[in-house]
Amino acid sequence: PASADFTTDVLVIGASQSGLAVGYYLRRAGLVYALLDDQGQPGGAWPHGWDSLRLFSPADASSLPGWLMPRPADNGFPARDAVVDYLTQYEQRYELPVHRPVRVEAVRRSGKGFAVQTDGGTWQTGAVVCATGSWRNPFVPTYPGQADFGGVQLHSAHYYDATPFAGQRVLVVGGGNSGAQLLAEVSQVARTTWVTEKEPRFLPDDVDGRVLFTQATQRYHAGQETAPPPTLGDVVMVDSVKEARRRGVLSSVRPFVRFTRTGVVWADGREEAVDAVLWCTGFRPALAFLAALGVLQPDGRVATTGTQATALPGLWLVGYGSWTGFASATLIGVGRSARATVDEIKLFLVYNKSA
Ligand code: FAD
């Protein structure tokens, strides 16, 4: 239907950890709100993580506001499916009004609020919170000849396990955690080369996500949250990466310069045949539906003050990374951004109604 079918005070787009954390505080605030998510199941990006994916932190350091993530039976770091279970139960526990699958196509100004156009009708709302993460917008760098390359190209967003790569010659591109972990896994069944912009920086073996979060929190409390993090490293030494180091496969080379139909050409001119390229090159915010509002920057972000769009009162962005709040793209960190956001929304709605 083209007309306004539904009306809320606040509409949250995305119902994974970031949207649920916002929902938790909206519920406490007693506002009329709904969450829209385009997936058929709870958990946002998490069900699409690779089969062996585990959190970097123990359950109690990976929890949303109000309810701790249950500790796994093996006391280890929670696996992908444990996170999905937690988010599924969280949504039920707090009776969060999630509508799915509903895809948001465009957000426009409408009166004092917004009209949110979806594939299931249009919502009229006083405020909008974007919590769409980045999984829906994988980033792949461009190289000359890429379109003619006859091999497989797969982004880590769509990787589940190493089986399709058995016996192949595979380039794993990207020096972050995804690159290191998928290199560790694929190198067990394939001939791999790890391609990174610069030499990867490995964290000390005993530094996990909890340690990183604690350090970041100390900086935050010291009022230095915008300062660059200490140069400890990027790659967390999870068990699979340590094991890859023992096997001697954790070395890397600098990028190739172009593709051929059957492989790549390296900077020294050497050609090499390649069956597949696994892009572990990150993501960009999934915010294309904001295009009509004129707030999207060339890098796909929105200028924010805290979590509110600087140029457009009534629009908030939660969970995208440090530009939307300290540690906001983590399970444990998003609660703080969510709470501050809902506090602002409450004031905004009162003021906007009376203005
Ligand atoms: P998402 O989980 O991506 O959810 C956004 C939801 O919005 C999705 O359901 C999406 O489909 C939906 N959506 C998008 N566009 C639209 C639209 N137009 N209309 C309707 N719905 C839409 N964090 C940790 O704290 N600990 C970890 O150990 C950890 N490990 C990670 C490992 C990997 C490999 C990755 C990629 C990330 C990891 N993170 C970790 C970071 C972060 O917690 C996750 O990326 C998390 O999924 C982000 O949650 P989110 O709610 O912001 O977004």
What does it look like?
This protein is α/β, with parallel strands linked by helices and 355 residues long. 23% of the residues lie in helices and 21% in strands. The chain is built from 6 helices and 17 strands. The strands form 4 sheets. Strands 1, 2, 3, 4, 5, 6 and 17 form a 7-stranded mixed β-sheet that branches. Strands 7-14-8-9-10 form a 5-stranded parallel β-sheet, covered by helices on one side. Strands 11-12-13 form a 3-stranded antiparallel β-sheet, with no helix packed on it. Helix 3 packs across helix 5 (239-247). The longest helix is centred in the C-terminal third of the chain and has 21 residues, at 334-354. Flavin-adenine dinucleotide (FAD) binds at residues 13-14, 16-19, 36-39, 44-46, 49, 53, 55-57, 62, 103-104, 131-133, 135-136, 178, 209, 286, 289, 319, 329-331.
What would the keywords be for this entry?
355 residues, 23% helix, binds flavin-adenine dinucleotide, alpha/beta, globular, Auxin_biosynth/cation_transpt, seven-stranded mixed beta sheet
**Secondary-structure content class:** alpha/beta
Q: Given the structure, what is the number of helices?
A: 6
Give the helix proportion (percent range): 10-25%
The radius of gyration computed from the alpha-carbon positions, rounded to a whole number of angstroms, is 22 Å
Portion in strands: 15-25%
Largest β sheet strand count, sense and barrel closure: 7 strands, mixed
Oligomer: single chain
**H-E string:** EHEHEEEEEEHEHHEEEEEEEEH
Poorly predicted residue ranges: none
Mean pLDDT figure: 93
- Secondary structure tally: strands: 17
Identify the overall geometry.
globular
Cofactors, ions, other ligands: flavin-adenine dinucleotide
How far apart the termini lie comes to 31 Å
